[in-house]
Design brief:
heterodimer, A: mainly beta, five-stranded antiparallel β-sheet, 11 strands, about 55% strand, B: mainly beta, seven-stranded mixed β-sheet, four-stranded antiparallel β-sheet, about 50% strand
C-alpha cells in the first residue's frame, strides 16, 4: 500500500536556526498536506499543495511540492520556540480513496 | 474550518469493558474518519465512517472490535470493545468538508487508558 516517509524523525535546533524536513511518498500524490501537532494537542492543518512544483509560504514556513508529486519539503527559517511540535505530512493518492496517509512525523524541539 | 466536539476527552477503563467515543461536528461534512495515535507516534487510520452504511475498515481493524456508527452528516461514534491494555491510546475523530476540499480537521482526541 501507499507509504509516506518523513525525515528526519527528530530535529533539535537552536532558536534562530533554519532547517528543512522532507516527505517522500511511494506513489504519486494528488495533493500533499502538512499538519502541526503541539505537545498534548491534536493535529492542525497548515497547508495543502496540489500542483507539481508548487511553492507556498506562510510567514517563516516554506512548503514545496516536488515536480513528480511524490515528495515535499517544509523549510522553517529563524526557528522560534513557538515552532515546537510534531510536523506531519499527509498524502492523498491520485485516483485513490479520500483517505489521507500520514507520515511518521518530525518532532521539533528548540533550544532557546 | 469545522468545529468538532469529541467526548470523552479521557477515560480510564477496566479491561473487558467497552467505551463509546462521540464526535459531533458543527456543520454537515462529507467524510468522517477515526484514527488511533500512540503517544509520540503517527496517526493510524482505523476506518472511514460512512453515513447510513457500514464503515470501511483499514487492514488490522475489524468491526467487531471497533464498531462505528454514522447516523447523519454531523455525528459519528466509535466503540472500543472488549478492551485490553493494548487498546490504550489516543483516538481522534477527523472530518473533511467535501470530496474536493480535503483539508482535515481533528477533534481534541480521547485519551484512553485500559487497566
Amino acid at each position: 500500500g501507499q507509504q509516506v516517509m518523513q525525515i528526519p524523525q527528530y530535529q533539535h535546533v537552536q532558536e534562530g536556526e533554519d532547517f528543512t524536513t522532507y516527505c517522500n511518498s511511494s506513489t504519486t500524490l494528488s495533493n500533499i498536506q502538512w499538519y502541526k501537532q503541539r505537545p498534548g494537542g491534536h493535529p492542525v492543518f497548515l497547508i495543502q499543495l496540489v500542483k507539481s512544483g508548487e511553492v507556498k509560504k506562510q510567514k517563516r514556513l516554506t512548503f514545496q511540492f516536488g515536480e513528480a508529486k511524490k515528495n515535499s519539503s517544509l523549510h522553517i527559517t529563524a526557528t522560534q520556540t513557538t515552532d515546537v511540535g510534531t510536523y506531519f505530512c499527509a498524502g492523498k493518492t491520485q485516483g485513490g480513496s479520500e483517505k489521507l496517509v500520514f507520515g511518521k512525523g518530525m518532532k521539533l524541539t528548540v533550544n532557546p | 474550518s469545522a468545529v468538532i466536539s469529541q467526548k470523552p476527552s479521557r477515560d480510564i477503563c477496566q479491561r473487558g469493558t467497552s467505551l463509546t467515543i462521540q464526535c459531533q461536528v458543527d456543520s454537515q461534512v462529507t467524510m468522517m474518519f477515526w484514527y488511533r495515535q500512540q503517544p509520540g507516534q503517527s496517526l493510524t487510520l482505523i476506518a472511514t465512517a460512512n453515513q447510513g452504511s457500514e464503515a470501511t475498515y483499514e487492514s488490522g481493524f475489524v468491526i467487531d472490535k471497533f464498531p462505528i456508527s454514522r447516523p447523519n452528516l454531523t455525528f459519528s461514534t466509535l466503540t472500543v470493545s472488549n478492551m485490553s491494555p493494548e487498546d490504550s491510546s489516543i483516538y481522534l475523530c477527523s472530518v473533511q468538508r467535501t470530496v474536493m476540499n480535503t483539508e482535515a480537521f481533528f477533534g481534541q482526541g480521547t485519551r484512553l487508558t485500559v487497566v
